[in-house]
Design a protein that fits this description.
The complex is a heterodimer of chains A (about 140) and B (about 300). With about 140 residues, chain A is mainly alpha-helical. Chain A is built from 5 helices and 2 strands; from the N terminus they run H-H-H-E-E-H-H. In chain B, strand 11 and strand 12 form a beta hairpin. Classes of the chains: A mainly alpha (about 140), B alpha/beta (about 300).
Chain lengths: ~140, ~300
Amino acid sequence: MLFHINFKSGKPVYLQLVDQVKAAAASGALQPGEALPSIRPLAEELRLNRNTIAKAYAELESLSVIETLPGKGCFLKQNHSPLRKEIRRKLLIEEIDQAIVMAHHLQVPGPEFLELIQERMKALEHKRRANEEHKEK
Amino acid sequence: MNSPTPAIEIQHLAYSYGKAEAVHDLSLRVLPGRCYGLFGRNGAGKTTTMKCLLNLLRPQRGQVRVFGLDPAQAEVEVKRRLAYVPDQLAFYPWMTVRETLDYLTSFREHWDGKKEQELFDRFGLDPAKRTDALSKGQRTQLALIAAICPEPDLLVLDEPTSGLDPIVRREFIETVIGAYQEGQPGSRTILVSTHLIAEFEGLIDEFAIIDQGAAVLTVEADQARERYQRIRARFAQAPPTVDLKGALQVRLEGRELELVVNGSGPELLERIRKHNPESLSTESLTLEEIFVAALKS
């Protein structure tokens, strides 16, 4: 997969990598069992410190998004969060709250915000389907 | 929890050349495995600091510790575990590249021949060439091969990319740091001084900005980018008088307002929002912009 780093986004670089892997996994662009780029070539390609990439991969591993097979590399795992459902809900609620605050500041009213969420979910579903069809061919 | 012995610990270091004070009360600490940047203008005291770490200069005040040891007391032990690439490179001019490396290898307990070959291939350096016939870029490449192949615990690089063309600079950074950190990332520590900060943007974990011999700012790179932000706002009419206390820089042009802030971003954003701007955006400063902002304010 191809990563994009933006130093100006204000988001720590390792989190940018984490989020991009999560997004690729959610959209099906990265399939369970598929390998992530290994650390050194990726560090050189993105001109990053390997510590940053190692930190991102360690974070993804602790979230059970990927697994490391010693000597083989890192692979996307089947989608099984080890966290209990209530914890998963809590984590999601934090993110949703942030988006709601953002919507308030950007003066997007509630109904429009809900519509947007549905639209984004459809867009992701669409991407997933496109990736799956592509895989079947 | 025991924290690991810092690879480098400098406390209240001071050093003067005659009346000219080069370093004045500098303190910093570098933990093992970090890539630490020492940023400063020419004459800020970067090279003097590095020379104190290597016992090339004796601190006049304060103390330096490398791997927890005093470089003046345990010079051999310290130098066994580090490699230093100075800003002024000197090789014996009559030796070839191969002879130079063989000579340098003889001082080391350990030499990774595979890494040496890999770097030769990457750089396209000719082992049979005499060192006095090398270009500036090739001399730097040779010095870096010599520094990395012993696989030291600490790599001290003094302005490694100055005077090199952009292609060589890119190559240097990608290859050298990657090759050095491979293996045991936990203990491979880098201290690099430079004023060409943009090139090290993604490589630096943590840095100190030094000015007139003292640290102005020591911070983690991600944290610095979070704290130093540029806020842009545009209003429907000429901007109202907003309380901009806490901004490092303010630019006002017609209906537009641009601020540079250090840490007070959320608070200022809140104040600006109250005036209902047409548009409002923030972005992080790059390390180079942070450097300029820290020295100007």
